[in-house]
Amino acid sequence: IQPGPLTGKKVVITAGPTYEAIDPVRFIANRSSGKMGYALAQAAAEAGADVTLISGPVALTAPIGITFLKVETAQQMYDAVMSHLAQTTVFIGCAAVADYRPADPAPTKLKKSAKDDLSLQLRLNPDIITAVASSGERPELVVGFAAETDDLQHYAQQKLQHKGLDMIAANQVGDGLAFGQDNNALEIFWEGGHKSLLEAPKLEIARELITLITERYHAKNSI
Ligand code: C5P
Asked: Which CATH architecture has domain 10-99+122-221?
């Protein structure tokens, strides 16, 4: 392995959706192929980092040479992240975590009833990246993602602040954009800065984002 700009640095990345069981057959999830998170894991490994990829259920193979953990639920992802946080330099939350889970998943398959309406009680899941950013083992750089259908900059900057992040990568979704696609385009925001990454294959975008993260890391550490 060639030394790179992130040699000796531990990078933890979450990717993919989480599945929240309604019963043994059905679940609630977000649309996420995991492609962006897996591309980031590869790009970080290429830059020399010691990468841990914590992934929800996706149909992708993990890049070689990294530590790989597969989880299903937001709670499992939270537990896996927290137990791998020690000595982490960069955390990238790329997963599309389900904000809510069914409060009381059924142990056996729910049967169809004759009623037209059915309601499901949901309970809030932990916000993983917020927990990482406020942890006693906070990585030096915490980078989030924001998939937005509208008002991208406003919501992204709000999340940057509210979640206590160092950087946020926002992408426009809806109308066939981003989800499951091989290309992506990102608007990156940090305190006092902004950069647009124009549409390109996800691996190229990932490499550019890793370069930007490395620059921010050095900027933060040269003060
Ligand atoms: O609030 P929203 O879900 O849009 O924020 C997206 C960012 O927060 C992503 O980085 C995502 O991985 C992270 N997130 C999380 N835990 C949650 C919800 C979102 O880490 N429960």
From this structure: 3-Layer(aba) Sandwich (3.40)
94 marked among binding-site residues: yes
* Angle (CA) 115 121 123, round 5°: 165
Quote the ligand 1 centre to 163 CA distance (angstroms).
9
User: Residue 185 corresponds to which tokens in the numbers above?
Assistant: 């385009």
pLDDT tens for each residue of 36-75: 999 999 999 999 999 999 999 999 999 999 999 999 999 9
Confirm or deny that 5 is annotated as ligand binding.
Answer: no
Distance CA 192, CA 177 (A): 28
CB 6 within 8 A of CB 24: no
This complex has an ipTM of 0.97
Ligand 1 within 6 A of CB of 159: yes
Rounded Cα distance, 122 and 78, in Å: 18
pTM above 0.90? Answer: yes
184 is catalytic: no
Look at the block and give the residue holding tokens 């902004």: 194
Q: Which of 26, 142, 30 is nearest to 93 (CA)?
A: 142
Angle between helix axes 202-221 and 35-46 (nearest 10 degrees) is 60
Would you kindly state where each structural domain of the chain is located, as residue ranges?
10-99+122-221
What pairing do the DSSP bridges indicate for beta strands 50-55 and 67-70?
A: parallel
Residue of 13, 124, 127 with the most ligand 1 atoms within 8 Å of its CB, for mutation: 127
38 closest CA partner among 8, 17, 18, 16: 16
